[in-house]
Each structure stands twice: as C-alpha cells, then as structure tokens.
Amino acid sequence: ETGVTQSPTHLIKTRGQQVTLRCSSQSGHNTVSWYQQALGQGPQFIFQYYREEENGRGNFPPRFSGLQFPNYSSELNVNALELDDSALYLCASSSDRGHGYTFGSGTRLTVV
Amino acid sequence: GQQLNQSPQSMFIQEGEDVSMNCTSSSIFNTWLWYKQEPGEGPVLLIALYKAGELTSNGRLTAQFGITRKDSFLNISASIPSDVGIYFCAGVNSAQGGSEKLVFGKGMKLTVNP
Questions:
Q1: How far apart are the CA of A69 and the nearest CA of chain B, in angstroms?
Q2: A74-99 average pLDDT score
Q3: Residue (of A78, A57, A77) closest to A67 by Cα position
Q4: Residues of B with CB below 8 A from A5's CB?
Q5: What are the phi and psi torsion angles at A32 (to 5°)?
Q6: Chain B window 57-86: which residues touch A at a Cβ cutoff of 8 Å?
C-alpha cells in the first residue's frame, strides 16, 4: 500500500482527556514527523522519529508524546487536552531526509 | 512557532491567468519545498528545490530557490479551476538530535474563476 494513512479522520474530546492519533507510513519510510495545523495557519512541527527513536522536537510541551513502531506505524499521544489543542494533526513520512515528506490527510481534533 | 513570510495571503484570478507567490525567511535553508493543500486533505508536494539558484519546473509550475537561500518563489502559468487550494512554502531546517523539520509559511489561498 502506498501513501500515508491517518486515523481517525475526526475526533471530539473533552478538555482534560487524553487522545491517541495513529499514522501508517509507506513501507521503507523510516522517518516520521507530526505537525499541528491550526485553522488558517501553516503546519507547526511537533516532533520527529527516526528508526523508532525521537530525534527532534518543536516547541510543544511534554504532554505531547509519540511512538514509532517497526512496522512503519506511529502514534501521537496528547494528555490533559486543552481547548487550544483543537487543530488538524498531520503525519508526514520520508525515506530520505530532506527529500520531501509525504503527508497523510490528517486527523481533525476538536476539544470542547 | 516559527513561520515563513509568505505573500500574497490570497489571490483571486481568472482562468488562464498566471499567478506568482513568494516566501522569505530571516534564516537560511538548504532545501525549499512547495506544497498544495485542498480542503480535508494533507499538503501534497509540488516541487522540491535543493540548491541555491535552482530553477525547477513541474508542468505548469515553476519554482526557484533564491541565491541567498532565504527566499523562494512559485509561479503557476495558465491557471485552471483545479489549481484552487492553499499553497504553502516550507524550508527544511535541521533541528536538535539530527532531525529535520519543515518550517512552513502561512499559506496562499488561490481562487480561480472559470
């Protein structure tokens, strides 16, 4: 299967809850990054995983965490949800660093 | 968070017209990327630029990597209705731990009137 697949497509959570978002990358894509895109803005880098290890993080608090698995899938976990966490969360993968990243369609998270 | 300066923020053009947009940064990038995003979808890579001064085309799209490494532009020639969407520039930046992060502009919303 080609492309990057994210699930779920939409999600509504209550403030204070925890959420797990999932991403399935293309086979051989050993680099995966997560981005947060607020309405009307460009995506913002959350963190990147390379061969199952976090190797870079943007300006996001520790309640944003992730995992990458050997089967090229990954997760983004957010604890203690806040209203400002409402956004489109995008997963992007690449087989070679700096050569363009393939994005999934995203998960639209709404925190109420 | 860090964002690139992308302009214009929106454009309304007639089908068949050309459109230009650009992106500037206070930082140097080694790679510039241009993406298009349609409603309900993630960004789709249009063009990647890897060397300062590089001029690259992809069909009706042409992009250039500025020689200062702090800017890039994208041109779309002979626009068609399916060009509608939001166009983002992104610079590739090395982050801590050897990772690479994309720093995006705020996007340019293109509307094409048939």
A1: 17
A2: 90
A3: A77
A4: none
A5: -130, 135
A6: none
Nearest to B41 among A54, A99, A105 (CB): A105
Nearest residue to A9 (alpha-carbon basis) of A112, A111, A102, A104: A104
- String of b and e for A89-110 (b: at least 16 CB within 10 Å)? bbbbbbeebbebbbbbbbbbbe
Q: Which of A4, A33, A94, A101 to mutate to test the interface with B (most CBs of B within 10 A)?
A: A101
Question: Per the structure block, which two tokens stand in for B105?
Answer: 């502009």
> Which of A82, A106, A83 is CA-nearest to residue A34?
A106
Chain A interface with B: residues with Cβ < 8 Å: 4, 6, 31, 33, 35, 40-45, 47-48, 50, 54-59, 90, 92, 97-106
How does pLDDT run across A9-49, given as a tens digit for each residue? 999 999 999 999 999 998 888 899 999 999 999 999 999 99
pLDDT band at A1 (very low <50, low <70, confident <90, very high): very low
Per-residue pLDDT tens for B79-102?
Answer: 999 999 999 999 987 765 667 889
Nearest CB to B101; choose among A58, A90, A102: A58
Q: Measure B114 CA to nearest chain A CA, in Å.
A: 25
